[in-house]
Structure formats: structure tokens, C-alpha cells
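User: Here's a protein and a ligand (flavin-adenine dinucleotide). What would the complex look like?
Assistant: Let me lay out the input and then the predicted complex.
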Amino acid sequence: MVSKARRARHAEVAGAGFAGLTAALALRLRGWSVRVHERGEALREFGAGILVWYNGLRVLEELGALKDVLESSVAPPYYETRKDGAVVSVEDFDGLEWRAVTRQDLYRALLSAAVRSGVELVSGSEVVRAEPDGRLRLASGECLDADLIVGADGVRSRVRESAGLESRRHGSHDGIVRLLVPRSLRDLGDGPWDNVIDFWNFDPRVLRVLYVPCNSQDLYIALMAPAEDAEGSRVPIDVTLWTSIFPQLTPLIEAGRGQTGRYTRYETTYVPRWTSGRIALVGDSAHAMCPALAQGAGCAMVNAYTLAAACDEGGEVQDVLASWESRIRGLTDRCQERSAHFAETRSMANGSQFTNVMLETARFDPREW
Ligand code: FAD
Ligand code: 5PR
């Protein structure tokens, strides 16, 4: 008997961020032909550092990108929280695996795995419209047909808007400036400088520095200030202000002097439906969240991975997408809500906030979805 050869199914992906690259790679490894459109002229990631937890690490492992990430990242011994100078908690999450890495290194690992797997990547290609029947229109005027369209085009998603998927954005009161500075450990004196340290300050004003060593050379520091604080939210940073509140971090803050960058307001995007016909949203286009639990990219990677896994289970793409969404989104919704709550109340400052409930997403094993 001659077996019926099945045509390789084809996906068009909008956006080559963490979500788009993960979706493309996961689909490609399951036999799909995949093309990714990136509006930017270069394939690169902006920003500083990122935490990747057990959930994201399992996705990277399944997709053949874990080795590169392990080689370029560190496993911080503890997540320490300090409030107005006093240590309020030192957490190790009962041995749960987590890593700190620069965004550039995480991106490089995903990008090289995507290239190796045969994903087609097109930079300078802007998506302007997606239709539920699988048609994708580019700014160049070109129209493409796909079995699946992945909208991984970030918080201001054109795919989402053009497909008529509703969204509601909520900005929080705080935001941050993210910097990558050299690790000048000797200058800092004795201290647990391999830890992630969350320095919260309330008196005389609300300012916070999140200290994240990413490898032997690079340190990610996130400087949080209320949006209404003109000096705290200024870029380049106001070195005099920040060193006056965090004198022990002076060498790091000095290293950020003059660095351009952006003050990013925390925000949540609520998207009641992530799918429509052959379109699925993944990443910030579907669930941009406050970074308190450091799970935005983690959820993006898990959702992109499980989307590809669901497509392998057979059935019409439209039906598969709807059932994938209903099975997976609760985990992300809860994480998004918890993150928004922390951002609103600033209660991470009290320490010991990474309870088992709060770590639900981080502990999720996407292979058992
Ligand atoms: P993006 O990174 O925004 O990528 C979208 C891509 O699509 C971009 O390359 C863009 O150029 C492209 N694009 C946009 N429009 C179009 C178009 N029309 N056509 C073609 N291409 C287009 N997450 C964690 O897991 N851990 C952390 O520690 C963490 N820390 C964070 C700290 C801060 C301060 C913030 C703000 C977020 C943090 N996150 C963290 C969240 C994480 O950064 C994001 O969730 C993640 O980067 C989103 O990836 P994405 O691919 O969905 O979107
Ligand atoms: N965690 C991480 C992070 O980059 C930020 C936050 C928490 C890893 C951004 O500052 O809550 O601000 C946060």
C-alpha cells in the first residue's frame, strides 16, 4: 500500500522576537515550512538582561538551544530582597532551576537554532494585515497564504489589530530603565554579589535597583521609579540621585552614566481571544505583562512551544488553535494577574514573595502540557 504523503504545512510568523523565533523553531522541528517576517532591518534583541526559569529552560532544551544558553548564562545562588537597607528575604526556590542571561545571548541561542533548523528569516519585512483565512499582507504589497499565521509582533501587534482581536492596555504607576554594565566586583567590596539582589527603597522616595549578574562580565541593572518622578525616570540616568539613594552601588550606577536607553512603563495588555481562524497570537501581542515575576518571555516560549505541539495532534488548524488557547491560557492569565498585582502594590518589597503559587508558571513543564 502506498502511504499518502502529506504536504508540509506552512506557517508565516510576524515578528522575530523571543516569541516569534520560538514558534518558528518549534514548528520547523515538527516538519512545517516556516517563514518569519521581522520589521527591523537587523535580527537582534534590544535591552539588557533576563531571567529564564525552569519552564523556559525546558522549551530551550526541547528546541536544541539550551546548551548555548547554559554556556553564556549563570545560575544565581539566591534571589535576595532588601527593603530600605535591610535584608528581608533570601530565596532559592527549593532548588528550582533558573538562570540569568543577557538578552543578546538568549536571542543568539534561539536565532542560531532557528537558522540551523531551516527556518526562513526575512528582515526589513513588515506585516500590515492578517486574515483569519490564512492570508498575510506585507507592507511591500505582497500577499502570502499560510496554514497558520503566528502573530508574534509584540505589544502593539498589527496582526492582532488587523484581525479585529480586542485588546485593553493598562499602564502601572512605575517603570524602569534597563542597563547593561560591566561587573566591577572589586569596586563593590565584600558582599553576596553573585546573587540577584532586589534593592527597594521607600524613604525618602520610591526607587528600586534590581541587580542581576548575567555572566562573568555583564551585569543587568534595572532602575525602577514612579512615572511621575521626573528625575527618577530620566534617561540618561540622574547619577547624583541614584548614588545618593544607593551609595553602595556607586560604581555600577557610575558605569551607567550617559548610557542612552528608555524608561519603560510597566503595562499589561489583556487580550480576551488569542486566536481567530488560522491566526494565533503568542508573546507580548497576546499577554504583555508587568515583569515582577520575570515571566513575559517564559510564557511566550511556553505558549509558542505548546502551539506547535498542539498542531501536531492533528485536526483542522482552526479547531486546534481554539482548543490550544483554552487549554494553555489560564496559566498565563494567572501569571499576568499576579504580576500586575505585584506592580500595583509594590509588595515584592516585603520579600518571600516567590511562594509556590507565585512560581506556578516557572515550575510548569511544557512537555507535559
Ligand atoms: P518583542 O520582543 O516585542 O518582539 C516583537 C518583534 O516583532 C520585534 O522584533 C518587532 O520589531 C517585530 N515586529 C513588530 N511589528 C511588526 C510587524 N508589523 N511586522 C513584522 N515584525 C514586527 N520576561 C522574562 O521571561 N524574564 C524576565 O526577566 C523579563 N524581564 C523583563 C523586564 C522588563 C523591564 C520588561 C518590560 C519585560 C521583561 N520580560 C521578561 C518580558 C519579555 O521581555 C517580553 O515578554 C518578551 O521579550 C516579548 O517577546 P515578543 O517576541 O513577544 O515581543
Ligand atoms: N524581575 C525582573 C525584571 O527585569 C524586572 C522586574 C522583576 C527580572 C524589571 O525591573 O519587577 O521590575 C520588576
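Summary: The chain has twelve helices and 18 strands.
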